[in-house]
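To make this tangible, this section ends with a sequence with its structure tokens:
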Amino acid sequence: MYEPEYYDADRWGVFSDNYEEKKKKSKVQLKYYAGEELVTAYSENIPYLWGNILPKSGLVCLAGESDCGKSAFLRQLAIFNCLNNFGTFLGLNFENNKWHKRALYISTEDNQAYFAATLRRQCKDFRIEPRHLSELKVIFESDDIIEKIEMFQKTHHTNLIIIDCLNDILPTQATSAVAIRKFLSKLQRIAEDHQCLIIMTHHTNKYAHNRRPSKYNLIGSPALEAKCRTVIELRTDPFQRNFKHLCVVKGNYTPDGEKNKSYMLEFTPNLTFKNTYRRVDIDTLTLMPDYIADRVEKYNRLRNGGVKGDELAKAMGFASRGSLSVWAKKYIKNNTEPSEPQPTPDLKDPKDSKDSIDSPDSHPSPDPKDPNNPKDSMDPNNPKDPKDSPSPSDTSTSPKKPRRNPFDILYPL
């Protein structure tokens, strides 16, 4: 690294000529690195803590719905991080032997009794004695958490910090994207200064189980997923609740092959995870609940009965037609593979054409063999020269298809 230069405190953007004098006054320090120095000093291989999923340092978000096992998964990760005799975690390489085998767990949702009970059950499954957990440190307070983490890192130097959960440590004024990024920048600075990994738990929205795993399922501001280098979604299997799916929905350093399929894990009664060594396509993890299918059936029944507008929205339980429209868009977006579309109504029917003057049927093409047909007619449908006849590809004379109500198509489960 080159010798830092100091900005003139009185003249921003201009370097001071009197270096030693301004060095004492200025508090702004500029550090920069040459590209040659970076390329020669670092390897092209990204250092990982676990497999190709969790990097050695930085910010990671583990999201999921309530009661899906996020805390249990991170407790198990913290336990294995503190052990010396394990080189793998859930079947993937676990490179904790290169750094400090110590973990800091910040629990804001469980107290000491509940945390200890679940920890004992997990240790029982792996036959881990209490003395092996001496390097697992737990904090149950959420106030002034940035200062507490910095104080802890100065004396203990842990390589893994788990925050469970993020919403409890965010300042009350951190409601905008700018405020959230500013708060996360403090955590990122700690991760960079101490070369540690910080994992935060977060929740997904109430429609996430109807959608494919995605980074857009996180609640709150998108600044969270934008700031994190890796975002993981933990989801319960739609058919067997004792199986969970670990889905990498964002990974700046993760290969694309890791993002298309989930890691299928077995969730035991003792709140531990076991690898089934199965990868599942994330597009198959969506299941439409029965209550949505029932509402769609009710919507079609009311609409076929002639109920429309505000009356239809009120019958469906919505405050306005706008709310009903929002629900319709979410329903259509969350489901694929529609059934066979309904046939297009025949426009030759007087009811569909409405005997309009501009209707294609109101100007039928004359029969060229009809003796009453005037040959010198200027009707474009009866030109003198065959070359002047409209081509079949001409869309100006083709009838327009009527708009089809998307809810007339029932999307199957």
